[in-house]
C-alpha cells in the first residue's frame, strides 16, 4: 500500500516522529514538551549496574578496606618460597630435598 504525502512534515507525523526543528502543539495550540524515551535495553543496564563486573570489583574492594584492613594483611607466599629462605639458592634446595627423601627412605 502506497500513501502519497504532500509534504515531508505529513510523512513524519504519520510515522509518529516529531517534526524536526519545530515544537509540537496540541489541539488548543499550547506547546507540548517532547521527552525522549530511553530504550528498554538502556534502562535494564542501569538497573543491573550492581551485577556488572566493574561494580563487583568496587564492592569487593570496599569490603576489604572496611572489614579486612588491607594495610595490615601480609601478602601470601607461595608454597615453594615458604620452604626456601631468601639466602638459599634454588639448586641447593633441590639437593637438600633429595637428601631429605633419601633419609626418609632409610
Count of alpha/pi helices: 5
Shape estimate: rod-shaped
Q: What is the N-to-C succession of helices and strands?
A: HEEHHHH
Largest sheet: 2 strands, antiparallel
Helix content: 40-55%
What distance lies between the first and last C-alpha atoms, to the nearest angstrom?
A: 97 Å
Domains, number: 2
Provide the low-confidence segments as ranges: none
Measured by DSSP, the beta-strand proportion falls in under 5%
What's the pLDDT, averaged over the residues? 60
Q: Write down how many β-strands occur, each being a DSSP E stretch of 2 or more residues.
A: 2
The side-by-side strand order for the widest beta sheet comes to: 1-2
Helical/strand content category: mainly alpha
Structural Rg? 36 Å
